[in-house]
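Look over both lines before class:
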Amino acid sequence: MLFGGGRLPKGHPRVEAYGTVDELNSTLGVALSFLPSRNVFAKAISGVQNELFNIGSELASGGGGKAADKARLFIDAEAKIASLEALIDEYDAKAPPLRTFILPSGSQGGAMLHLCRTVCRRAERQVVRLSHEEHVNPDILRYLNRLSDLLFVLARYVNKAAGKPETEWRKG
């Protein structure tokens, strides 16, 4: 069901897109439960969860036109994306230098953040797929792209803070 009352089949790209954004929001909630309650970026993740709800609502509002423009909830995207970029820079500087590919693992919080990253990438792919059929706010794609990079960096930072070494990928 769409925001505003319309209906689409469960397998429709729009339903897949906002459903995957909702799944991402839920996995972030689980990740937060594995982090110390006073974690330095917990407030930022809670803000991201709110933005994901806005994004999901916007995606569920339908395609283009006046009704979709009126339902636009993901606003001030430039500032929100800049905030993600600042967090990426801050926590990337605190993580060990990346010399090779790493396997998603480590502490419970770090591993969950890696899972969040993969769900975020899937959400991004679903929104791209939808954008090939209908109008999608391009800022949503930019936000999801930067968010997945932030989740990668945060996973690495959390593992370092927990004293859990990263598992390097080994070819063959």
